[in-house]
Amino acid sequence: MGTFNESQQAFLHVTREVESDTAGPGLGLRELGIHGILGLSFDFAPASPINRAVTEQSGPNATWGSSVLRNIFSQDGRNGSNFIALDLSRADDSEDVDGGSFYIGEYAEQWAAVAQAPKLYQYPRGGYRWATLLEGIAVGGTPLDISSLVRGAPDERLVALLDTGVPYTDIPSSVRNDLYSRIPGAVTFIWPQGPPGQVWVLPCNTTTVVEFTFGGQRFPIHPLDLSYLSGPIMAGGHNYTACFANFDATDDGWPSAGLDALLGDAFLRNVYSVFDFGDANGTAAGQPYMQLLAQTDPAEAIAQVTLIRNRIMANLPPEIEPAKLLEMLQAEDPSIRTETSTRAGNPLSTASLLAHEFSSEVQSSVDSSAEAFCNTRNYGANGCCCCGKNSQAGCCGSCFGEPDDPFAEDADSQKKEENTAKNASGDVNAKQPPPTPELRVPSSSATS
Questions:
Q1: Is 313 in a helix, a strand, or coil?
Q2: Which residues touch 402 (CB under 8 Å, ≥6 apart)?
Q3: One-character DSSP codes across 333-396
Q4: What is the pTM of this model?
């Protein structure tokens, strides 16, 4: 792999695959051109049935069942460079990628300044996942009120998991509502007859800049990452296009699992990220940490929004203003409510909306239906080295659950049923909450 050669490495031999939620309805990973998953987890015994099988057969000193990264880090001459560095990159809107990189033990030259970035240590320390403290969220320069629900976490912080293996971002529902309520023209509604949760619709050409703060530094998020394009929505007898919130809400179970937020590719596409595994002995001086370097320039991003979205939407049905869409939907279903809800449970799944409302017009704008599905989910098929061109972007999961983590157990169980390949590193998709039902327009104006 690249310049690395590991002469003895155990992998899971997959002989059968069933339909995968990751790939989409009726698809397995192979239909997307994916022949395996290379996890990037911490190497700890409960995560890997492969390593257990190897050590049971060959003894506790056998290393060929360890993760690929651990074996690479153990090679002579590594000099303690036990880190990976990723540039997820972007091209235009969320329908394609351009470039990107995945480095082991070194940095891409143009982003080498990340070595001087603040070290973001794990929270809590000594865990087996890339969680750290998110210090602030600002919308248009105005800070939002944030407070962790994780027991023992510091005040005015959120415990956030950085996960390249998922395309979206999840934040507490109260923070999500506060964030989107500050975007001009955005509207929200609750649909008692539809899936539970609060729906946010916003202008497709919004130029609002959201910033996340880590280590005392602000990291701007491109306005395009705040929303995604719907498929055709029929209302009042006509087809329209709308843009839905790209940030989902975490539910009540997350804090009990030690997390407030999950920051997937919708955030990580805006930074150059480094994940340092620390030293092999786990000394205080060698604890794992993350480093981030901002890649999004707010002024440039604002200038790009209208140009890019107008080009992408040129062959789609016309955009409908969020307030007008809500008015038309309420006329057909009076049960739709517009009052603000701050409940944290049962979020509306962006992933579900994407899977069921992705338009044929957008599909034709990219190279293939497989790439279209993956790319419209914002550069992530919830696995490692994702679809088509995404394999060039180093889109590899860095989210790893602990053994007592209920989300990790659910995801691990699902993956075992699917028989998708994984190495000794464990499940790259451990922290996703269970999917929720899809959004459906009332029967009198069904989505086409």
A1: coil
A2: 127, 128, 129, 258, 408
A3: -TT-B-S-----SSPPPHHHHHHHH--HHHHTTSS-HHHHHHHHTTS--SSSS-SGGGGGGT--
A4: 0.74
| pLDDT tens digits, one per residue of 411-430 | 333 333 333 333 323 333 33
Residue-wise pLDDT for 230-256, tens only, equals: 888 888 889 999 999 999 998 778 898
Alpha-carbon gap, residue 15 to 13, rounded angstroms: 6
DSSP 3-state of 401: coil
Token pair 């009198």 in the structure block, residue: 444
Using left for φ > 0, alpha for ψ between -120 and 50, and beta otherwise, residue 223 falls in alpha
Q: Are 225 and 267 in contact (CB under 8 A)?
A: yes
The Cα–Cα gap between 390 and 165 comes to 12
What are the tokens at 406?
């209920």
Query: Phi/psi at 50 (nearest 5 deg)?
Result: -65, -50
Contact in structure between 335 and 353 (CB atoms under 8 Å) = no
Tally of CB atoms within 10 A around 147: 14
HSE-CB for 216 with a 13 A CA cutoff: 3
Contact between 187 and 198 (Cβ < 8 Å): no
Residues 6+ apart with CB under 8 A from 343: 173
Backbone φ and ψ of 235, nearest 5°? -145, 135
- CA count, 13 A, side-chain hemisphere, 316: 27
